[in-house]
Design a protein that fits this description.
Distance between the termini: 71 Å
Structural class: alpha/beta
Radius of gyration: 22 Å
Largest sheet: 6 strands, mixed
CATH topology of one domain: Rossmann fold
Strand order of the largest sheet: 4-5-13-10-11-12
Order of helices and strands: EEEHHEHEHEHEHEHEHHEHEHHEHHEHH
Strand content: 5-15%
Length: 438
């Protein structure tokens, strides 16, 4: 059976477009597009057969199925020829059983999905492998694409640069000057991307890269391009697969541009439609208090959404006041009985530090999700016996200055209840013994 996927308007306008066409918005309503799969064709295999296929491919050495994304190729981008796939063995990341931290807050079955254990240290690799692979095939088929461009708060630029470098395609990155970590800045530079540091925020960078993508030969890599979401949706499938095809009660995910929660819902949608699962999890989208436009809309009953100017936050990758995927995110949250919660700077810092004390090493964005979890548990919305998965979007190693400043009590407004600093001791055994044994 030949499997097929096309772009269609998320608002339901008529028309469809091939995945290798340079198009990002509906020509009729200017709404976003989504990748739509021929589900009837996919039903030629039973749910049990798909489960068997995915399990046999898991972490395989057979190209390209060792990738967590391309092991589910038929559900992602079936038209991409294997020779055009650009992969760094992304996906397949571990579920960390956060037992000690979970018990400390009142949850017995808490897991952290470490998406940051990936090639460039964030979940953005999951979507970028799909987008860059499609572009590589477009170039191979004669399309005039001279560079792929993105606006970024750090992680998207790292993923784009790495995958473009692997494929031999030029990458262009627009970053808000002085608003990302050194580790995030050096990644695209090291991979040879053309990096433009702009005196604006992410939303300003996004506005400019959308204009740039209208130039001939420049292809847009931000999450308004639904190819990215096709890779990111495999997180939902992977979580269920890692629990032997059982669905958790809750999934908590931090969000900025909001493509991630839309992708999460899309992954669960496909499993439900094709019979691999028969229940839905509830989804919580977590935002930083200083960059919380969706939280505000949720508290107002979803009736209105208004962009904001996002403020300074340690969760810099989700410092976005005008998210492009807001409407499809709202649809996903409504479908999955979703909630939106927020975290102050103190709450996200303390939650991250508490989880670290129990064996994790979390980025500040994961801290936002953990703080949201603590609030849901405290008010009884999440029960003690619920199975909860928190999606960790990036490696804590990309945010070492956040960690250092926390433990040195240098984050404004944060008391640092779990601070831990080195103890200066002279080169003397008795002094060492006193310091260790008291």
């Amino acid at each position: 059976m030949a499997y097929r996927a096309v772009f269609r308007c998320v608002e339901g306008c008529p028309g469809e477009w091939p995945l290798d066409e340079v198009i990002y918005e509906c020509p009729t309503c200017s709404g976003l597009l989504q990748v739509s799969h021929d589900l009837e064709a996919l039903k030629d295999k039973s749910a049990a057969a798909w489960i068997k296929t995915f399990d046999e491919r898991w972490m395989s050495r057979v190209w390209p199925y060792g990738s967590g994304i391309w092991g589910k190729k038929e559900w992602v981008a079936p038209h991409v020829r294997d020779e055009n796939i650009v992969s760094t063995a992304e996906g397949g990341t571990n579920l960390f059983w956060a037992e000690r931290y979970g018990k400390s807050i009142g949850v017995e079955d808490l897991w952290i999905k470490n998406c940051g254990n990936s090639h460039t240290g964030s979940f953005k690799d999951l979507g970028m492998t799909v987008l860059v692979s499609v572009v590589k095939q477009m170039i191979a088929d004669g399309k005039d694409i001279r560079a792929i461009a993105c606006a970024s708060t750090g992680d998207t630029s790292a993923a784009l640069a790495a995958y473009c470098a692997t494929a031999g395609i030029p990458a262009v990155v627009l970053l808000p000057k002085g608003k990302i970590t050194t580790a995030q800045l050096v990644q695209p530079l090291a991979n040879g991307a053309k990096v433009l540091a702009l005196d604006t925020d992410f939303d300003g960078c996004m506005a400019l890269v959308k204009k740039l993508a209208k130039e001939e030969g420049i292809y847009l890599a931000n999450s308004m391009n639904s190819l990215r979401l096709e890779g990111q949706k495999t997180v939902a499938i992977e979580i269920v697969q890692q629990f032997d095809w059982q669905v958790p009660d809750w999934v908590i995910i931090p969000g900025g541009n909001l493509g991630n929660v839309a992708a999460l819902g899309a992954g669960f949608d496909m499993m439900l439609e094709l019979g691999l699962i028969n229940k839905k999890p509830r989804i919580c989208l977590a935002q930083a208090e200083r960059a919380n436009p969706l939280y505000r809309a949720y508290k107002a009953g979803w009736d209105t959404f208004a962009p904001i100017t996002a403020g300074e936050t340690e969760a810099s990758a989700i410092r976005i006041g005008n998210p492009v995927s807001v409407h499809r995110a709202i649809r996903a949250l409504r479908k999955y009985d979703g909630v939106v919660e927020q975290a102050t700077e103190a709450e996200l810092a303390e939650a991250a530090a508490a989880a670290d004390r129990a064996g994790a090493f979390t980025c500040p964005h994961t801290g936002v999700a953990l703080a949201a979890l603590e609030k849901l548990v405290a008010r009884g919305e999440i029960k003690k016996t619920d199975r909860v998965v928190v999606i960790s979007t990036a490696s804590g190693l990309k945010f070492t200055q956040f960690k250092i400043r926390y433990h040195e009590s240098r984050i404004p407004g944060v008391v640092s209840q779990n601070a831990n600093v080195p103890i200066d001791v002279p080169n003397d055994y008795d002094a060492v013994r006193r310091a260790v044994l008291g």
